[in-house]
Amino acid sequence: MKRFFSKRGTWSMPYVVFLMFFVVLPLILIGVYAFMDNNGNFTIANFVKLIEQPEALNTFVYSVDIAVITTFLCILLGYPAAYILSNSEFNRSNTLVLLFILPMWVNILIRTLATVSLFDITGIPLGEGALLFGLTYDFLPFMIYPIYNTMMKIDKSLIEAAQDLGANRFRVFQKVILPLSMPGVISGIMMVFLPTISTFAISELLTMNDIRLFGSIIQENIMLSDTMNYGAALSLIMLLVIGFTSLFSSDDEEQVSQGII
Q1: Average pLDDT over residues 173-187
Q2: For residues 42 and 36, what is the distance between their CA atoms, to the nearest angstrom?
Q3: Reported confidence tier of residue 101, pLDDT bands at 50, 70, 90
Q4: Cα–Cα distance between 160 and 179 in angstroms, integer?
Q5: Distance between CA 83 and CA 102 in Å, rounded?
């Protein structure tokens, strides 16, 4: 018994069981229901419906556009913030990082409701602008933190070597800091872009249900028993997109690291 508990594999069993029941099994069920009709027969009609009724496809394209704009705004705001944080004094840097991380400790729905109240108080109408503002506000910490962590791991001797060779601050940033921080940028893009496509609560609250993202289409169909299989098909498509994007980003991050080396 002692020998059994001394093995590392024994202590990993709870995690394996958890992953099997709460990750692998739901994914398998999504795949099975995606190829079934309401009578339990095999069919590909759920995927044909996506082509014949372009509402979901148009919503997906619009969701990608919103995700791209949100990701761009997060990079535009997050990269300078991460750069400033990584170059601040130690005590001040920790305090500022904590201030950026604090919103992540609050439930995203509570933050979204607070954003809705803010727009109501200021008299600004809800809509696409409010949606972009809310998405950027909610996901900005997920862009800042990976870039900040990557910048903090940059060897300071490389910066000093570039300065000794006559590089000014702009050249140091262009030739040293920017290339070495790209893995953090790629991680930040993944943490912002993919959740933005599949979200539904934020868009519903910040647009009063006037604008629906792809996550809303999936949620609406899964909640109805008549269209649950269609919702599973949409979920499977979303999973494939996420998986492909994750593999693509991993290859990009590896190429960036090899290029730097």
Answers
A1: 91
A2: 5
A3: confident
A4: 16
A5: 19
